[in-house]
Design goal:
Layout (H helix, E strand, L loop, with lengths): L3 H8 L15 H11 L5 H21 L4 E2 L11 H4 L3 E7 L6 E2 L2 E2 L3 E10 L5 H13 L4 E2 L1 E4 L2 H6 L10 H21 L4 E6 L8 H9 L4 H16 L7 E6 L18 H6 L5 E5 L20 E7 L9 H11 L8 E5 L14 H19 L5
Parallel strand pairs: 1-6, 7-8, 8-9, 9-10, 10-11, 11-12
Antiparallel strand pairs: 2-5, 3-4
């Protein structure tokens, strides 16, 4: 007989073969979005095509061994800006240049800015996106939903506004907005939430820490504020809501914007966050070694090793991946580890430089290796 405690245990960990969430946009969807921008397609017509493509994506995820299905972020242009601009007090605007260069590749000239008190007024389009995904996925499917971190409001917008006299006040409002919105996602049926965060890279290298100082903050203090924002956003969540966080060094057209290992931030990331799992980049030397995993101090925290790259089509050597998993197990028990690609395949609608079939080959590769290491996930 399964007790409530047993059910909670099963729910509160990522799958042994998991993924970060975004997938390459099909040509039909890209064409529809372009026509919508040009006024040649109505919102209703675009939504119908989005629904059809998400349904096909959900079936493809299931067919390729994924147990926690997403909508691939098919309704978004950006992994983060679409969500953040849906909060009260934040708007999209056209910038002189892109948000940031990704290894010399420039993004589109779009950013966000804080124009009023940040809040959540009880409605956000992503709530509807989740409801639609849940309906498309069908009864019995585990639906995974991704949102950007509250820390991105600070990292990308709050420092350039005069709406707030103190940075701490920005965090108070943003955290409250996230906490309320996450409660509404739960009420809508969300049981697997992933928070995506590139802001932690501010602490990985001395160059990045200098950038923080140039913006008027102390990195040794800011890192704790980042942790408080995450923990406050998910405070009071029900026992059956799995919350994970993905830490990223940039993912745009197969490029990145920074490097650096977890050592300088490891004590806070691995020992100070109230999440159930951490999706971490470990696909190349830019991410450093596994030594910072020694800071993991909880037996109920799952470390999802991003050893399969989403940036290149070539499949990793299977035995080398297994050897790296065993290496990580020197610091964290094997049962607390899992495997995934290091990031999504399309953090923006442009997507990474590989084909859809190459994308699914990566997913199948991760699933096979995970089953070899841990066996088939029974959930």
């Amino acid at each position: 007989m399964t007790t409530k405690t047993d059910e909670t245990k099963k729910i509160r960990s990522p799958f042994k073969a998991d993924h970060v969430g975004s997938f390459l946009r099909p040509a039909r969807l890209k064409e529809a979005r372009e026509k919508f921008k040009e006024g040649l397609l109505s919102r209703e017509e675009l939504t119908k095509i989005e629904d059809q493509e998400i349904k096909a994506l959900v079936e493809a995820q299931k067919a390729n061994g994924i147990q926690g299905v997403t909508d691939g972020e098919f309704r978004r242009s950006w992994w983060h800006l679409d969500f953040l601009s849906g909060l009260d007090g934040i708007e999209l605007y056209e910038t002189p240049d892109g948000v940031r260069k990704f290894n010399a590749v420039q993004t589109r000239p779009v950013g966000i800015r804080v124009v009023g008190k940040v809040g959540y007024g009880g409605h956000h389009p992503f709530i509807d996106h989740f409801k639609s995904l849940k309906e498309i996925a069908g009864e019995g499917a585990t639906v995974k939903f991704t949102i950007p971190s509250p820390n991105l409001v600070f990292a990308r917008a709050a420092l350039e506004t005069d709406v707030y006299a103190k940075h701490e006040d920005v965090y108070e409002d943003v955290t409250a907005a996230y906490n309320a919105l996450i409660k509404d996602l739960y009420a809508a049926g969300c049981r697997y939430l992933q928070i995506d965060d590139t802001a932690w890279t501010s602490f990985f290298t001395e160059d990045e820490r200098d950038r923080v100082r140039e913006l008027g903050s102390d990195p040794d203090e800011l890192i704790h504020q980042f942790a408080r924002a995450i923990n406050g956003s998910i405070a009071g969540r029900p026992d059956d809501l799995l919350v994970t966080m993905h830490i990223c060094r940039g993912n745009f057209r197969s490029q990145y914007f920074t490097s650096g290992g977890y050592e300088r931030a490891g004590e806070v990331i691995f020992g100070g966050l109230d999440v159930d799992g951490l999706f971490l980049e470990f696909d190349d030397d830019r991410s450093g070694g596994f030594e910072p995993l020694r800071f993991v101090n909880r037996p109920d925290l799952t470390i999802v090793l991003g050893l399969i790259t989403s940036k290149r089509p070539e499949l990793e050597d299977e035995e080398q991946v297994k050897a790296r998993i065993r290496e990580a197990a020197r610091y964290v028990p094997l049962e607390q580890l899992a495997l995934s690609p290091q990031c999504g395949f399309a953090s923006t609608e442009e997507g990474n430089n590989l084909t859809e079939e190459e994308q699914w080959a990566k997913i199948r590769h991760a699933v096979k290796i995970a089953e070899d290491i841990w066996g088939k996930d029974p959930r």
